[in-house]
Amino acid sequence: MTTSSIEIPRTAFSRPMLRTLLAAALCSAAAAAAPIRDADTAAWWQTTRYLASDAMEGRDTGSPAYERAARYVAERFRRAGLKPAGEGESWFQRVPLTEVAVDKPGTRFDIVRAGTALPLAFLHDITIRPTWRLAPILDAPLAFRGACSRAEMRDVAGKIIVCFNLRRTAGERSAAAIAGGAAGLIAVDNPYFTVEPPRWPAAYARTVRIEGTPAAADEALPVMRLNADAFARLIAGSGQDAAAILAAGGRDAPLPSFDIPARLRAHFAIRTARYSSPNVLALLPGTDPRLRQEVVVLGAHLDGYGYGEPVNGDRLYNGALDDAAYVALLNQLADNRHGRGFRRTILFAAFTGEEKGLLGSNWYVKHPTVPLASTAAMINLDQLRPLFPLDILTMLAVNDTSLGATVRQVAGPMGIRIQADPEPERGLLQRADHWPFLQQGVPSTGFIFGYVPGTDAERRYRLWYRTRYHHPADDLTQPMDFAAAQKFNSFFYRLVEAVADADTRPTVLPDSPYRHRSK
Predict the structure, then answer these.
(1) How far apart are CA 213 and CA 143, in angstroms?
(2) How far apart are alpha carbons 309 and 103 in whole angstroms?
(3) For residue 467, what are the β-bridge partners?
(4) Residue 306 region, left (φ>0) first, then alpha (ψ -120 to 50), else beta?
(5) Per-residue burial over 407-430, b = 16 or more CB atoms within 10 Å of its CB, e = otherwise
(6) pLDDT tens profile 267-303
(7) What Rg value do the Cα atoms of the chain yield, rounded?
């Protein structure tokens, strides 16, 4: 398909229409903490509105709606004067994918106790990790084994083992269950992990991976997740206090081990598919004869969740801040430059499959369209929530590369304090598209809006994760602080200029664990 068939809103980049655009954006921001007060932010938000509109259907990886969004972004890059950087002189790099899903119709979970079946609501009480070796029927007795560390996984053969979900034992559970001959594994949510509370319902149960990826060692083991609210029903009749167990687990206290006088009986409606989904790649060639062979990657992910389990009657997960707004920022930077290069070349990358496991960025680093040895840096736009004034930015991998010093030089005059990740237990460094690049030794980073603990800013941040993250409520109606968004966008423009025009190339610092991987 050609990009010319995509209809682009003129207001996305037509300067004579900016006054009209600004007025429209002001109306759309009526409920926000601060209105839009400048044309650049208004244009950015108009693109966000287009990408996160209901017409784009949440841009799920591999969907027709995602393909429409990809063509739109490519056409915006073309009109901004960029050059295609995909396969065969196109804007696209297609990623071959394979999927297995457990569909809600036809799937059932029951706790069977004394001949009576008590249903668990799929996607609300319980969900399952689909795998290509998952059997369609699971029926086995239940047993609780604390946090399921290796020492606790005794007498598990033929049983579905229930575990309190402690992150420190996550790497041991599956291996210990397989070694002990367990029939399955259920991880019970830790309701006391308040830095990022568990979210229900699950949108759907799907696993997508790059075609040809070797099977995981634990694919034959059914692995499930249980809503903590359903835990008491699961262990009823055991003589154990569900609330006390959850509280003990939340404070990392010792947990009991006991058999549960019930079975779990489940039937799975399993579906598989094969398809491809494109990264959108575009180049702004460098102007310096010495530096233009070095490439700075600017990334954001175009995919979202698409349609999923309804919440309050809404089944469309629009993904406005995650991550339509920051693909829109790539488009806005390209529009602002309109073909005027920096000293170094810029690769604009709108990645696919981030929400399914960083699939597009992982594919790219294994099949780069510009050599990784020539890739000077990767700056990723994700995990950004402009909900309160921007005074603090968390910078991921801040102490691993020379980008940390550059960022501080840019942020300081703007009144932005840079900090290291205060919550490394969330694993945010490993959860976005900068990570595959950093693993290859490319100086890479991403940012998160920071706050002082105990303030209203923290309250807004936590509330967003409880009520909007990977949720239909991440849409265009949510409150926004457009002054904070404007400040971040300006910071991003200045940072790109600082990195792309610097005399020296960014480096991985000597004490970083990624040093040995750098080119």
Answers:
(1) 33
(2) 11
(3) none
(4) left
(5) beebbeeeebebeebeeeebebbe
(6) 999 999 999 999 999 999 999 999 999 999 999 999 9
(7) 24
